[in-house]
Write a structure and sequence with these properties.
Number of helices: 5
Number of domains: 4
Structural class: mainly beta
Shape: globular
Number of strands: 32
């Protein structure tokens, strides 16, 4: 598994046992290459997809996207059936979309080999050619089956490990255990619902909150999200996958591509344009209004504690990163306006019989539900979406990663002090007419409001005939640099 930075490493705890067969190829050919050589090239410059006996590559695929978004990976596909073979062997119930994408860097990531259950098929005909649109979801054994499961008193961490045995998934986490022992039951709900309900009330302490997902490599992942946010700006060692090496001949014995040692960094600077870390486009997104109108700035967890026969009402104020209070913008209302403090929500959750007495819920069961929900929702307020020019082996969900955005001929304030290891990055300071200080690299100026450290929330791998492979990465930040150019001198406390 690919790891994050500092103490946020997401490590493999259990390997998956699900069996994914090797794709048997038939008529697939690469231009100017013999059939005998095809294993060296398939899945390299375009996704290789097979449905029943119908094989697709760059000649037939129009658009493709595999999404590592939400809980389970999904696929969207548009292709043309020139030979009419797909029409004559149209998929039926139980047929699969088989996907293979060769790894850009086998030292950091495995190849992508996924089977998808087909959700929908649509299509139309134009100029005598049938165009089909398919969607699918990763095939995970029994995850949508409704079963009776019963686990004796233990932590949510260990119960998730047990569920992975049931559905043949691996397990990965940046956590080692949780403090939420209780018996857990699944009364004929789907196993997917059982997993989500378990993580919904996972608890360690008031400084931790959790989320979960299945990655592209069949690992169920439990993430303690709060450990990913830090004011530490040390760059992580890694490698940059060279674009010039992505088309090289790779045998089955060695699928590695050439790379160069470097600090892991995503950037739109031209110096990166021969690597998979190059940002070809980007945009900011802001959903703050939607989030606070739905969730308030605080939410109260209210319940009747049947151990003490008392009514409890505890508020959850979403966490902020230690050390950010005076140097960063906290996304809690406008600076100087305290009206946000009145925007609160309340959730009454009924009675709680805890394991401290004779009940079957851990003592923080109701509180943890609000703690996890409110903090995860807060992270959706504002972020950065970037499109990389190929699939980067440095990208994995809930990895902390730095971004450097440069612009030509602008006057931007440098209030993000990026560091390379323990040595401060050497830059040239320049003063514009208003006295603002900004960083200049050759003819480019760093946009220091956007540049900085982010956490990868999710991503999609895309392919089309015009651009080939690209990767769209949605990055989140909990606090933002103070935009001095807008006249704001400090945050409210």
């Amino acid at each position: 598994m690919i790891t994050g930075s500092n103490n946020s490493d997401i490590l493999t705890v259990k390997e998956p046992s699900v069996v994914i067969e090797q794709i048997e190829t038939g008529n697939y050919e690469v231009e100017n290459q013999s059939v005998a050589d095809k294993s060296k090239y398939m899945g390299n410059n375009s996704p290789y997809i097979k449905i029943n006996g119908y094989e697709m590559d760059a000649k037939s695929i129009i658009k493709f996207k595999v999404n590592s978004i939400g809980f389970i990976p999904t696929i969207d596909l548009v292709f043309e059936d020139v030979t009419k073979q797909f029409q004559n062997d149209f998929p039926k119930d139980g047929d699969l979309i088989e996907l293979y994408i060769r790894s850009r860097n086998n030292n950091r990531k495995k190849k992508i080999r996924i089977n998808f259950d087909i959700l929908t098929i649509g299509g139309y005909s134009t100029k005598g050619i049938n165009i089909y649109k398919l969607s699918g979801i990763m095939k995970v054994p029994n995850i949508f089956s409704e079963q009776q499961l019963s686990y004796p008193t233990d932590t949510s961490y260990n119960h998730l490990l047990s569920v992975c045995e049931e559905i043949q998934l691996g397990f990965a986490s940046n956590e080692t255990n949780t403090i939420d022992s209780m018996p857990r039951f699944n009364p004929n709900n789907t196993i997917k619902d059982f997993i989500l309900k378990t993580v919904e009330t996972s608890y360690k302490d008031e400084n931790s909150f959790y989320t979960t997902y299945i990655d592209l490599y069949y690992y169920l992942t439990l993430v303690n999200v709060n450990t990913l946010f830090s004011m530490d700006e040390t760059l992580e060692d890694g490698s940059a996958d060279l674009i010039t090496a992505l088309t090289q001949d790779k045998s089955n014995d060695s699928e590695n591509v050439s790379n160069q040692d470097s600090k892991i960094l995503l950037s739109n600077h031209p110096k990166f344009d021969n690597t998979t870390n190059y940002i070809k486009s980007y945009h900011l997104f802001n959903k703050s209004g939607d989030v606070w109108m739905k969730n308030g700035y605080k939410r109260y967890s209210q319940y009747m504690d049947m151990d003490t026969y008392e009514f409890n009402s505890f508020f959850v104020d979403p966490m902020t990163t230690e050390g950010s209070e005076n140097d960063m913008v906290i996304l809690k209302g406008k600076a100087g306006d305290d009206s946000y403090e009145l925007q609160n929500k309340y959730t009454y959750q009924g009675r709680q019989f805890s394991t401290q007495n004779s009940g079957n819920l851990h003592p923080n069961y109701h509180f943890s539900k609000i703690l996890n929900y409110q903090n995860n929702e807060e992270l959706n307020k504002m972020g950065l979406s970037v499109t990389l020019q190929d699939i980067s082996s440095n990208i994995s969900r809930y990895k902390r990663i730095p971004v450097a955005i440069y612009e030509k001929n602008g006057n931007l304030v440098n209030n993000v002090n990026m560091k390379n290891g323990d040595e401060e990055r050497k830059t040239t300071a320049n003063n514009d007419e208003s006295g603002n200080v900004y960083e200049r690299t050759e003819n480019f100026i760093a946009n220091s409001f956007i540049s900085g450290f982010y956490v990868v929330r999710d991503y999609s791998i895309n392919w089309d005939r015009g651009d080939g492979f690209t990767q769209t990465v949605n990055l989140i930040r909990r606090e933002w640099p103070i935009p001095y150019s807008a006249g704001i001198s400090k945050n409210k406390k």
